[in-house]
Design a protein that fits this description.
- This protein is α+β, with helices and mostly antiparallel strands.
- Helices cover 31% and strands 28% of the residues.
- The protein is built from ten helices and twelve strands.
- It has helices at residues 13-20, 70-75, 77-82, 86-91, 97-100, 105-111, 117-124, 139-142, 213-222, 233-251, and strands spanning 3-9, 25-27, 40-46, 55-57, 61-65, 128-131, 135-138, 152-158, 162-169, 176-185, 188-194, 201-207.
- The strands form three sheets. It has a five-stranded antiparallel beta sheet with strand order 4-5-8-6-7. Strands 9-10-11-12 form a four-stranded antiparallel beta sheet, sandwiched between helices.
- Helix 9 (213-222) packs antiparallel against helix 10 (233-251).
- The chain is globular.
- The chain starts with a strand and ends with a helix.
Length: 255
Amino acid sequence: MATYQNYIVAQSLEEAWTLNQKKSAVIVAGNMWLRMCGLRKQTAIDLSALGLDRIEETEDAFVIGAMTTLRQLETDAALDGAFGGAFAHALAPIVGTQFRNGATIGGSVYSRFGFSDVSALLLALDASVVLAHRGPVPLSQYQQEAWDRDVIAQIRVPKGRRAHVESVRLNATDFPVLVCAASLGEDGLRLVMGARPARAMIVADGLPESAGMETFEALSRSLPLGSNLRGSEAYRRKIAPALMLRAANGACGRD
């Protein structure tokens, strides 16, 4: 159980950033995973008063506040329509509805969880992270960086790609053994693998829409994979091509 000496509801992003520069502070986001990790910090920083729990649609993108819950993303009709139902399909298997009502997109992205279905989908959609001090940073770059003390304000998801996510789980609502997110845009297919069990990564970009099992088997042979309690490296490598094929077919609108 996490414990904090002080609980501060930040009144501005600048205040949140300033407070978060101390190693004794932490941004709690939805406080779903964090509260279970046994963390002891002097100050917990709450962003809930900053209006960051909204999904705003612009002409060319969706701008998602960091405090937006996974359940909001799952049920948003505009997101569902813009990306071929990918958000609802990807988020529905995560733990349970009660959990998704509390977990935030900012917490998921900042934590760079290896098991994150969210990060895999956002990488496939070429999303960027808007930070309080650094400003916009491509998620593909941010995902590989070490944890820092900047504050995520928003996630920007550009329009123009159709996406689909497939995962293998040992049980419903469990962490995934392997996740593949695919998206199709004017530049071709992008494939992202998550739960490798390391952080999600882009494994192919610009593939032709006609790419098939032979291509995915070749990608699987060079894919950096590992083992954990949910599956061995050999098992992940065996199922990866089929998962890529299913995700690609979904992104391309094929059965």
